[in-house]
Amino acid sequence: MVDMTENAPAGQAGNKDAGEGHHHGVSFGEAFRVWLRVAALSFGGPAGQIAVMHRIIVDEKRWIGEHRFLHALNYCMLLPGPEAQQLAVYIGWLMHRTFGGLVAGVLFVLPGFLSILGLSYVYAAYGSIGIVAGLFFGLKAAVLAVVVQAVIRIGSRALRNRVMLAVAAAAFVAIFFFHVPFPLIVLAAGIIGFFGGRLGLDTFKAGGGHKAASGAVLSDAESALGEGIPAHARANLAWSLRISAILLALWLVPVAVLYTFFGPGDVFSQIGLFFSKMAVVTFGGAYAALAYVAQQAVQHFGWLKPGEMLDGLGMAETTPGPLIMVLQFVGFMAAFRNPGSLDPMLAATLAAILTTWVTFVPCFLWIFLGAPFIEKLRGNVALAGAMSAITAAVVGVILNLAIWFGLHTLFAEVAQVSFGNLRLDIPELQSAVPAAIALSVAAAIALFRFKTSVIATLFGCAIAGMLWTLAMN
Prior knowledge:
- The protein has helices spanning 28-40, 45-60, 66-77, 83-126, 130-158, 162-176, 182-198, 237-262, 267-281, 286-300, 306-317, 326-337, 344-370, 374-378, 381-410, 434-449, 454-472, and strands at 414-419, 422-427.
- It is mostly helical.
- It comes from Rhizobium etli (strain ATCC 51251 / DSM 11541 / JCM 21823 / NBRC 15573 / CFN 42).
C-alpha cells in the first residue's frame, strides 16, 4: 500500500520547503473548491484551460509562482496526453501530495465526462430527429473551421525553420498519401529530433509553447508554496516506483482481464487495447490524436461514420474539460452499435467509463513517476529536440485531419481511389453540400476575421444548423 501523504525521508513530514519549515497554509477543503472551479471553467482547449488555471492558481490565489508554473507546464508538454489535465495533477501534488494530485486530476475530467455522457445519450437516442440532427450538422461545419485554426496556431509556433517545415511536410505526406500509422510518424520524428538535439543543432532547440498571462509576474518566493522544494516533492525513487506500479496495474489489469475472458474480437477488449495505445502516443494534443482515431475507429473498426467523429469533437469543444474527452464519445458509440448481449445504452455507458479510465489513468502515472525528477529531464537537450520534431510532425498530421474532416463535411459522397501504394479520398463534386460550405465559411470568418470565441462560434453554427434543418423540413 502506498502512503498517499508522504514520500519524503523521515523527519521531513508536512508540506514544507526543504530545510525552511515553510507551510503554504492552503487547506485541502479550499483546494478542493478551487479545483472544482477550475474544472467548471475549463473551456476552449488546452490554451484556454491553462490560461484559466494560471489566472486562478497564480494570479488570484497566488499558490505558486510564475517560474514554478511554467516549469511544471514544460514538463507536462513533454508527455503524451492532455497537458492541462496533467498540469492540474502536478500542481495538486505539489500542494497536497499524492491525494491532492488525484483529486485535482479527477475533478478536471469529471464535468466533461458527465456532460459528454449526457450528450451521447441524446445523440444515440435522438440523433436522427430533425432538430438534433440540425444541431450536429451546424457543429460539424464549425468544427472544421476550428481544426483549420488549430493547424495555423500550432504551425506558427512549431514550424520555426525549414527543417521543422520539412518534418511537418513529410508527416503529412506519410499519413495522407500512404496512410502510415500515427505512432510510426511520432516515433520517426522523435528519433530525428533526438539525434538532432543531441548533436546540438539549433534547428531542434525547444521553443514556443504556451505563454503566461501578461502583467506583473509573481515570483516563487512571494507565492504561498515558496521557492524551495516541498519535502514530499523531493526525488524518491522507491515512492515513484510504488505509486507507478499501482497506477500501472489499475490501467492495464482491467484491459488484460477483458482480453483474457472476452477475446480480441470483443468490442470492450478492442476499446481497452486501442485507447491504451492512444494514451502512449498522443503527443501534440487532441487534434493530433483525432487524426489517428479517425483513421482507425472509422476505417478499421467501423465504430463510427466519418461525420460522427466531427459530432463528437463538437461535443468536446462545447463542454468543459480536455478535448481528448471526444474519445469517450467514440467508445460510447462503438459499444452502442456492438453491445453483444447487453442493453445498448448500458454497454455504451460501460464503454464510455472504460475509455475514460484507460485514457486518463496513464496521465497520473506519467506525473507521479516523473515529476520529482523534472530538473534532470528539463536539462536533456536530446529529449527537447525529440519533442520539437514531434510537435512539427503533429502539424502535418493535423493538416491531414483538417482535409479529411473537410471532405466528409462539405461533400456527401467521398470515394477512395488507389494508385499503387497511394490511397486518396476523392470527393464527388456533384455531392457538395452548399449549407455546410456556407456554415464553414461563416465560422472561419467569425474565428479569423472577427476573433469570435470558439464557444460562441460553435453555438452560433449549431443554432444556424437547426434553423436550416427546420426550414428544409
